[in-house]
Amino acid sequence: GGLPGGLTADDDDTFTYRFTHLEEAAGQVLPIAKDQNGCRFLQRKFDEGGASAVGRVLPEVLEALTELMVDPFGNYLIQKLLDRCDEAQRLQVIKRASENGELVNVALNTHGTRAVQKLVETLSTREQVALVIEALRPGVVNLIRDLNGNHVIQRCLQLGARLGRLGPEDSQFIYDAAAEHCLDVATHRHGCCVLQRCLDFASASQRARLVDRICAHVLLLAQDPFGNYVCQYVLELGDAGASSRVMHGLAGHFPELAQQKFSSNVVEKCLKLPGVAATQLKPEREAVIRELISSPHMGRLLQDPYANYVMQSALMVTQGALHSAVVDAIRPFLAQLRSTPNGKRILSKINVKI
Predict the structure, then answer these.
(1) CA 207/CA 36 separation, integer angstroms
(2) What's the pTM value of the predicted model, to 2 decimals?
(3) DSSP assigned state of 188
(4) Burial class (CB in 10 A: 0-12, 13-18, 19+), 110
(5) What pLDDT is stored for residue 220 in this prediction?
(6) How far apart are CA 101 and CA 135, in angstroms?
(7) Residue of 56, 155, 151 whose CA lies nearest to 113
(8) Is 226 helix (H, G, I), strand (E, B) or coil?
(9) Fewer CB near the last or first residue (10 Å), C or N of the chain?
(10) Neighbours of 102 (CB within 10 A)
(11) Residue-wise DSSP of 152-184
(12) How far is CA 223 from the centre of its chain?
C-alpha cells in the first residue's frame, strides 16, 4: 500500500537489511533521510521509539534542517519528527528553522511548504507560536501570493479558529498584510483565496477593517478575474452593512458591469443576497434593478451573453410592481427576444401576462 513519500512497504528492504538499530545511522542521518528507503527506516524508528528515538538523531537533523525540509523525502521525516518529538525538541526545531529568515524560503518550496504546514499544526506553546510568527512575518505578502506559501498562511488562519493555538490576534500579521496590500492580494490567483479565508476566520474588528479595504477598491475588484470572487464572498457573508457598502460602491455602473464576464457575477450576487441581508437591503436591491431597467442600452443588456443572466435574475427576484416595471422595460424588445436563445430564456422568467 502507499506510504508517505510515495513509498510502498517493499521499498525499504535495502535499508532494513543494512540498519536494524538507529545507532547504526549515526553520522549518516542526512544521506539516509534523503533516500527513499532510508527515510522510511527513520520514520519507522520515530514511530517505534517516540521522543527518545528523535533525540538520538536530532543534532544531525538540526544541522541540516532546512535542507531536509525542502527535500522530496526529507520533508516527510521532518513531518514525522514533529508528530513524535517532545516539547523541548519541538522548540529546538522551531528555533533552528526560524534562523536567518530561512522559514519563509522553506514555505515557498514545493516540499518545504508541507513541512512548515506541519510545524504550524503542531505548535503548542505561546513561545513556539511567537517564534513562528516572527519568522513568517517578513515574507507574509510573498507567501500569500505564492502557489506553495499560501497554504502555510491558510493553515495559520484555520488553526487559530479550530484549536485556539493561534488565535485571531496571533494571525494579526496576516490581516495587517491583507488589509495593507488589499488590491495586490485580492487580484491575485492565490491571494484572493487567502483573503476569503481571512474573512472566514477574522474577529469582528479584523473583518470590518478588511471589508473597509475591499470596498475602497470594489469597482476595480468586481471587474477583475480574481477580485470578483472576493466581492462575491463579501456579499455572501450575509452582513447587511458590508453588502450595502459593496452595492453603493458599484452604483452608477451596474449596466456596464452586467455586460462583463467577471463583474456580471457580482451584479447577480447583489440581486440574490442571502438570508436576512436580502430583507434588510430591499431598497438597495430595488435601486440596482431600477438602474438596469432605465439603461439606454436595455436592448443590448437583454441579448448580451452575460447581462442576459443578470436580467433573468432581476425577473426572478422581483414581485408585484417592481416585477411589472422590469417587464415593461423589456416589452419594446419582445419581438427580438422571441428569436434568440438568450431572449427565450428571459421570456421564460416573466410571470405576468404580456
Answers:
(1) 45
(2) 0.87
(3) S
(4) exposed
(5) 98
(6) 6
(7) 151
(8) coil
(9) N
(10) 17
(11) HHHHHHHHHHHHSSS-TTTTHHHHHHHHHTHHH
(12) 19
All three cell numbers of 98: 526560524
- Cell readout for 336 is 427580438
Average pLDDT for residues 156-184, to the nearest whole number? 82
Quote the cell numbers at residue 308: 442576459
Is beta strand 2-3 parallel, antiparallel or unpaired with respect to 7-8?
A: antiparallel
Q: Per DSSP, what are the bridge partners of residue 7?
A: 3
pLDDT at 163: 52
Q: How many CB atoms lie within 10 A of CB 22?
A: 21
Contact between 331 and 299 under an 8 Å Cβ cutoff? The reply is no
| Site of grid cell 416595471 | 325
C-alpha cell at 298: 436595455
- C-alpha span between 264 and 250 (Å, rounded): 12
Q: Which long-range contacts (CB under 8 A, 24 or more apart) does 325-328 make?
A: 325/289, 325/290, 325/293, 326/289, 326/293, 327/352, 327/354
Q: Which amino acid is at 36?
A: Q
